[in-house]
Amino acid sequence: MKATGMSSVGKVRKTNEDFFGIYDQAPSFYMVADGMGGHKAGAVASKEAVSYVSEHLEKHLEGEMTLPEIEGILYQSIVQANKGVFEKSLKEDACSGMGTTLTVAVPVHREDKITIAHIGDSRAYMIEEDRIHQITCDHSLVQELVKKGDITEEEAREHPQRNVITRALGTEDEVRPDVFSVDFTFRSTHYLLLCTDGLSNAVEIEEMRKIIQETENIETACKELIDKANERGGQDNITVLILQGT
Amino acid sequence: MIGKVLGNRYEVLEKIGGGGMALVYKGKCQLLNRYVGIKILRPEFIEDKDLVNKFKRESQAAASLSHPNIVNVYDVGQYEDTYYIVMELVEGITLKEYIQEKGKLSEKEALQIGKQVAKALKHAHSNSIIHRDIKPHNILIQRDEDGRILAKVTDFGIALATTSSTLTNTGSIVGSVHYLSPEQGRGGYVDEKSDLYSLGITLYEMVTGRVPFNAKTPIAIALKHSQQKPEQPSNYNSDISPGFEALILKLLEKEQSMRYQNAELVIQDFNNLQEETKDPKGLLASVNAKDAPTQILGKEGEKSYTTKVKRSSRGASKAGKEHKPNKKPMIAIVLILALIGILGITLGAFYIQGMFDGNDEVELQELQGLEREDAIEILEEQNLEYEIEERYDSEVPENIVISQSPSPGMSVKVGSTVDLRISIGPDVAQVPNLIHERQVDVELILEEVGLVTGEVSYEESDFPEGVIIDQNPGFRDEVPTGSAVNFTVSEGRPETMPDLSGLTRIEAERIIRQTGLIPGEITEEFSEEVPEGRVISQSIDSGEVVEYDETVDLVLSLGEEPEEEEPEPEPEPETITKELEINIESFEGFINIEVREINEDQRYYRANHNADEESVVTVSIQGEEGSGQKVFDILIDGGFHREVRMEF
Questions:
Q1: Interface subset of B 189-208, CB within 8 angstroms of A
Q2: A14: which chain B residues are within 8 Å (Cβ-Cβ)?
């Protein structure tokens, strides 16, 4: 898989609390994180989480593993990262209350699958030919209300509490990530997009697809997506990571 | 911050508290020579211009309020990068602490406090300010010289700024969701009646020591606010008068239109309760807003009217208790029963008359176990009326009579009513997903849909210990309520202890954590073989099987023990240079490249390159031979690009 990522502080905030990681030596994996919490602690949380997960995966992931094995290791990596970040938040005053979202993708070529581990409201989208769909489910208040039928998708977009997330990494001693595998045919017209809510709150899903498919390479597409979000106010940090099938 | 003088006037003296959004200090107003409270917005929120504007606007509005039951805001200002609010200094504890201290408050005390909060709300509402975050944490309790309780509401207006912000400090959200009205949870239209709902929850907590809606997640709590009927407070505190209970439940109506229409009406009912009548009949709480076209009713009309409604709604809530409150068919039954209740009074009056007129009596037959139609036929033949209540039953088949009242054998007047309870079969539950949930949560998840834990088996897997990896029956299967769900729990995989000898403390502790273990005590010893600062030995030998959360102690080297004689000059370690290649083909134009070593947090290289002209940038890295692995972050234009590891 070809991968590229980019992050922007946006137009309003002073610090970038997003973080991403591209680990493209087999077995490869990719992730984005959106930190939160007091004075710059968000940046600590997202970076720490990425580093814990990557170290765990580098140590345990091997080439010939079954999907349940990969899913188990991913789940374990998030539990370890949660422990590390949560302990730090208890120990260091400046980090008190910090936490982060985390969305990790592990391509499994042999099985034509991508395994995802996910917590929070960052997102993974899959683009195949001219279709795009979100494959992660936000752990947010509004998403849960939509699921229960209390509000519609349109209402969710304007909901005053749309930024309230219900699960995060590092905010409690226990964590419950979503871990699952989806079908993915590895060819150059197929993409996986990982992003933080700085992008998904500013750019419509169809616009994302168009930009990614119609731009000559994924580096430029990353840049265009970030530019678009910044044109629309850049309210939040924006992080985009695009994987292209090969 | 301490010692600073804000706005040339307020001297910051000491920190007295802090919440998710602000820190609170005791201060002194030098102009008026009085002590004040100073609330300072936490610095991380300053970047959010929207939030700061809202904070300023709202706190200025709050400053316009002045009332004995409100923590009055004196001044709002800005000092350098800091926004602050100067307010009345209240020496007391929060109502939350007060409840925790006492467990439950007496009705009398709850009434005093509740009335004062309602007065505060009335004042704010008449100034068009909605609090939006009424909860015991925001109500301060003091005693005056005569020992009377004085309640003061604080944090007016600040709530709006918090809830609409991008704040994702989950702790603070969990904190207040317990008090949030259904419309606030939905993001619907919020008005003064939303504050009244939160007051209702607060009163409930005062007299019962618990909040009416509790669940594992904030969402589940929010849903309960909009869907579930609260349990009667008297279930938890039998000393509560029916009147006070009616008042609380009226505040907790799901529909804004069903609650008290304003704080004044709540105060009126508090007064009614304080006077003498603990009887709900005399209360506004008994008037059902939907049935009552106008707010003001003549005394007499009100009384006769409310008596009826009260009787019916009592019947309703009793019936409701026997069922699962969140099932739609049940709600319908409750409503039907409520209607029957109203009819019952009218019919009852007729039958009392009848009793004096005729003497025809019949003996009731055994109806239990009969089909619905057969039971009805028998009753009709005997010229008896009947009322039917349908309910789920896992033992009695569908359409069969479960029970009757009065009992068989009793003689009743012709024309009187027999209550029949008829089964509509077992209630079915949809099996929830348990896979990837943690074992500790399973009971609650199953309980929520009316299922129970079945057989539990354990299996080794890559999933963490305690995570569910299989279940039977499966997700979305339909089973009768009360069925058991079996599942398999991961035991994790045994990890073996890695060899840490020769590593630095930082490296060793990182590996310990990665293995799922906990770094323990460090002791230091002199060593001839192991260089200073590196691990000599570990409390668990490498290769041993370890369990999660075991502690590993380390012994670090202090280097060679210094000898009396002239120390021999240490051989200089060989410095070697390695080249790090950074591919920048995929970039365009001028980019800034930065290389940092992670462990030392040291910058090795920073320069601008033209990606249009160069495709590979080479950076020389020096290191001591044999010093081990170095890890570098490569940043391009300030953003993380990739991580590189090099052996030295």
A1: none
A2: 47
Q: What are phi and psi of B212, to 5 degrees?
A: -70, -30
B358-426 under CATH 3.30.10.20, yes or no: yes
- B133 included as an active-site residue: yes
CATH number, domain B92-290, options 1.10.4160.10, 1.10.510.10, 3.40.50.300, 1.20.1250.20: 1.10.510.10
- The CA distances from residue B134 to B120, B192, B602, in Å, are 11, 11, 49
Q: What span, in angstroms and rounded, lies between the C-alpha atoms of B109 and B212?
A: 19
For residue B157, which of B93, B64, B23, B67 has the smallest C-alpha distance?
Answer: B64
What percent of chain B lies above the pLDDT cut of 90?
20
Query: Chain A contacts of B459, Cβ < 8 Å?
Result: none
Interface of B with A in 564-603 (CB under 8 A): 586-588
Mutate to test the interface with A, among B53, B599, B640, B641 (most CBs of A within 10 A): B640
Fold held by B575-647: Immunoglobulin-like (2.60.40)
End-to-end CA distance of chain B: 47
Q: B495-557 sits in which CATH class?
A: alpha beta
- The count of C-alpha atoms lying within 13 angstroms of the C-alpha of A188, restricted to the half-sphere facing its C-beta, is 5
Q: Are B189 and B179 in contact (CB under 8 A)?
A: no
Residues 116-155 of chain B with CB under 8 A from chain A are none
Side chain identity at residue A167, one-letter code:
R
- Given pLDDT bands bounded at 50, 70 and 90, which one contains residue B18? low
Whether B643 sits inside 8 A of A54 (CB atoms) is: yes
Among B15, B553, B27, which Cα is nearest to A93's?
Answer: B15
Q: Give the whole-angstrom CA distance, residue B354 versus residue B474.
A: 59
Q: Fill in the amino acid letter for A111.
A: E
Domain spanning B15-88: CATH superfamily:
Phosphorylase Kinase; domain 1 (3.30.200.20)
pTM here is 0.51
Tell the burial category of A183 from Cβ atoms under 10 Å away from its Cβ (0-12, 13-18, 19+).
Answer: exposed
At B578, list the tokens. Answer: 């390695």
- Rounded to an integer, what distance in angstroms lies between the CA atom of residue B54 and that of residue B640? 34
Tell me whether residues A174 and B639 touch, CB distance under 8 A.
Answer: no
Question: CATH 3.30.200.20 region(s) of chain B?
Answer: 15-88
Ranges for all domains in chain B classified under CATH 1.10.510.10: 92-290
Tokens 């409150």 belong to which residue?
Answer: B325
Which residues lie below 8 Å from residue B364, measured CB to CB, with a gap of 6+? B384, B404, B406, B407, B408, B409, B410, B411, B412, B418
What pLDDT shows up at residue B517? 84
Backbone angles phi, psi at B467, to 5 degrees: -95, 135
What number is the average pLDDT over the span B460-465? 90
Give how far Cα B10 sits from Cα of A7, B37, B75, B82, B537, Å: 42, 10, 10, 13, 58
CB neighbour list of residue B143: distance below 8 Å, 6 or more residues apart: B92, B149, B150
For chain A, the structural domain boundaries read 2-244
Task: Tell if the CB–CB gap between A80 and B516 is shorter than 8 Å.
Answer: yes
B18 close to A (CB below 8 A): no
Question: What ipTM was reported for this prediction?
Answer: 0.83
**Cβ distance of B640 and A20 shorter than 8 Å:** yes
| CB spacing of A142 vs B187 below 8 angstroms | yes
> Are the beta carbons of A163 and B461 separated by less than 8 Å?
no
User: In chain B, which residues fall in CATH 3.30.10.20?
Assistant: 358-426, 428-490, 495-557
Q: How confident is the model at residue B342 (pLDDT cuts 50, 70, 90)?
A: very low
Q: What is the CATH number of domain A2-244?
A: 3.60.40.10
Say which CATH class B428-490 falls into: alpha beta
